[in-house]
Recover the amino acids of this structure.
């Protein structure tokens, strides 16, 4: 997946427009050197950009041809014939770019809840304070990143699947830190029963985890089960808050570790 700033193409269009006006004046002896150089620079940036999608290779080729023409034109005093050739080559680039952009898959990803879209897509761990990142198991990190991406792209059932997997990974790490034996039955009810044998856990932890029993991962894996957006939002925030309590306790019990 590639993130591109739409202003990139807007700026290129500005340079094209300014160069067209300047070239017309250049036929009357007015210098258009600045506009020509700015357009040349913008086209070369577009032409050589390795992150331009494959669907726009034809536009990059057209840009290269336009650059070659610009390099041959003087910065002042061009003829009407030279201006005509420039306009023709520019029209070819404009047409090719228009075709490529029309075929390009561009989507707007709206914000979800109060989360910034780019954070959800690229920095999923940012939903937790940096102070608890040390306590996150490797598996949980991967699932959290998948969950936040699914949240960004509006995939509610996948959000639930990944955030609950992350929560279970954190729970397993918690049992390890507490030196608790894992129950044979892998369910939230069984985890909570085991945690209730400890008297030194954060206040209200097991009661906070209680509601997770209605979100058993096995139930969500049923092919007929699909969550709506609001259900996924509720689950995401609830699981995140429960995980945060556990992560803070893990981090407090392992103060010597670092990220």
């Amino acid at each position: 997946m590639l993130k591109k700033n739409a202003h990139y193409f807007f700026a290129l269009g500005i340079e094209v427009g300014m160069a067209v006006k300047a070239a017309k004046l250049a036929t009357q002896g007015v210098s258009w050197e600045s506009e020509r150089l700015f357009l040349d620079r913008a086209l070369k940036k577009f032409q050589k950009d390795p992150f331009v999608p494959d669907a726009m290779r034809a536009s990059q080729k057209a840009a290269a041809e336009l650059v070659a023409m610009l390099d041959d034109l003087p910065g002042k005093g061009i003829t009407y014939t030279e201006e005509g050739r420039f306009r023709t080559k520019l029209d070819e680039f404009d047409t090719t770019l228009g075709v490529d952009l029309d075929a390009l898959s561009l989507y707007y990803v709206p914000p979800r809840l109060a989360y910034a879209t780019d954070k959800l897509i690229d920095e999923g761990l940012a939903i937790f304070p940096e102070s608890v990142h040390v306590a996150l198991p490797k598996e949980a990190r991967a699932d959290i990143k998948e969950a936040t991406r699914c949240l960004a792209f509006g995939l509610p059932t996948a959000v639930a699947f990944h955030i609950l997997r992350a929560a279970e990974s954190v729970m397993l790490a918690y049992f390890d830190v507490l030196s608790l034996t894992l129950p044979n039955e892998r369910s939230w009810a069984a985890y909570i029963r085991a945690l209730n044998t400890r008297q030194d856990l954060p206040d209200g932890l097991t009661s906070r985890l209680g509601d997770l029993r209605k979100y058993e991962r096995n139930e969500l894996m049923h092919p007929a089960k699909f969550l709506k957006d609001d259900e996924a939002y509720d689950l995401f925030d609830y699981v995140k808050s429960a995980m945060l309590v556990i992560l803070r306790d893990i981090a407090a019990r392992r103060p010597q570790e670092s990220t």
